Amino acid sequence: MEVKMFNLKAESQRLKEEVADHAKVLAELDTTRAKIEQLNKVDI
C-alpha cells in the first residue's frame, strides 16, 4: 500500500511539472504571436 501511495505521489508531482511546462509554453506562444502581429503591422 505504501509503495502505491509513493508511486501516486510521484506521478502527481510529475503531472504538476508537466502542467507548469505547458503553461510556460503557452505563454511563450502568446508572446510570439503578439510579436508576429506587430511585425505584420510594420510590413503593411
From TrEMBL:
It comes from the Eukaryota. This is Uncharacterized protein. It comes from Trifolium pratense (Red clover). The lineage of its organism: Eukaryota, Viridiplantae, Streptophyta, Embryophyta, Tracheophyta.
